Each structure stands twice: as structure tokens, then as C-alpha cells.
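In this section we walk through a basic example: taking a raw amino acid sequence and producing a predicted 3D structure, encoded as C-alpha cells. The instruction is simple. Fold the sequence below.
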Amino acid sequence: MFTLRKKKISHFLNEIDFKALKNELYTKEWVVYCKPPFKTPENVIEYLGRYTHKIAITNSRLITVKDNRVYFKWRDYKDNNKEKVMNLSVFEFIRRFLMHVLPKGFFKIRHFGLLSNRNKKTKLKLCQKLTGSRFTEVKRLSRREIIKKIFGADIFCCPLCGSEFINRIILRE
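The resulting C-alpha cell sequence is shown next.
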């Protein structure tokens, strides 16, 4: 048994066997089937955003807790996308909810394939060469610049005199 990033891996007898398996897997051609999106790219981003940065069920879907049962709304996609009400025992509801809680050290979003840390530099350069394109660095905006783009004005300046009155407190810039 050995540790990998301070975590014990009990499935492999030694580090050499693990590295050999990992290297063998990286030589395989993996094909991932992805369906084309049904709507616009914006809808896809919105859909993914709901599942990558939020909890398993939102408060707006919870209806009531009564007689040791939790009543909540859900969408039945097989039945013409109708909204329905389901009720579960409190214990079953909590059990299902906790199935969505990741163990310590796990993350919801990982990068695989071209964007994995192992491949990113070499594979992206190969993609640039093969497609004849160049990736440009995206300029990171400050919080103040983002807010200015959203609202179309610098909301931290007085509209009458133009003096800055709150940005140093909130944005710490």
C-alpha cells in the first residue's frame, strides 16, 4: 500500500503497479459520446450551472413536512415535462439528499481529456497546430470591471459629483 497525495490507495500493492496501470490507460483511445444540445448553447450552460454549483434540491421545490413525510415538487420528463408532487419519509428524503453530498476531498467539476492537467499544455498546442488556430489568453476582469459591464456604469461612483464612495470598502481595490 502507498499514498498518493496523502491518501491511501489500497487497491494497488505498490506505486510501480499503479503507475503502470495509469500509463496503460493513458495510451488507450477513449471515445466519449456526447449528444448535441437540444436548444441553444446558453441553455446548456444554464443546465450545467444548475448541477455544478447548487445543491440537490432547492427550497422552492420543497412544499411541506407533515406527519414525518417531506412533500416536494419534481418534473416528470417522461410525462410531457409535467410538474408533480412526491412525498417521501423524512429518513428516505435525507438519505437521497445525502447521496448528492460529495465526500471530503472530492470535487464536482473535473477536467478530462484535452483539458486534464496531464494533457493540457501538450494537447492544446497540438490542437492549435492541427487546426491552424491560436488560443489567446482571456483577460481576467476585476470585480469592479465585471460590475461595470453588468450595470453599464460605475455604480460605486456618485452620479452627481463622480466621487468614489464605497468601492474601497466593498471591492477592496
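Looking at the output, two observations stand out. The longest strand covers residues 69-76. Residues 1-30 form one domain. In the next section we compare this with other chains.
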